[in-house]
Amino acid sequence: MRAAQRIQQLVHHVERPGQLVLLSESAKQNGSTPVEQYKLVANERGFYPVMTRGQKHPTEIVWLERGEAWKFGTTKNPKSRYSQVYLDGIGEFGVEKKQEFLGTQDQALQLENMKIRNYSEQNGKLSPPETKLLDRNSKWTLE
After folding, report:
1. Fewest beta carbons less than 10 Å away: which of 17, 20, 77, 139?
2. Nearest Cα residue to 21 out of 114, 117, 111, 119
3. pTM, entire model
4. CA 141, CA 125: separation in Å to the nearest integer?
């Protein structure tokens, strides 16, 4: 089975409410350090900052509804990636970190890129406010 097809199957499971793919079979088999794909969502409706790469301070603000994605990301260190103080300080009401997938680095990055593309198609915006876009020509881009 091609990697892209497998990731699409995993996304199907992740997108169902209450479902979470804890660890992909590939990650279990090769013993690699699992990589988490996560989403930061708005705790309440309100204004949230938009950061621009290379800038220390927000360059814009955006209105988000409760539960709306502020950022998609990946990390090898889920427990230390963000402090609760940092998450609580984002925007007017803070954001919540939600684990969406745990697997190999390739899988996590592919899934993150798919979620960014899906967000763009559904919302008419390039990406969630804080998500740093992957290079469109990178090997993680799925055609």
Report:
1. 17
2. 111
3. 0.71
4. 18
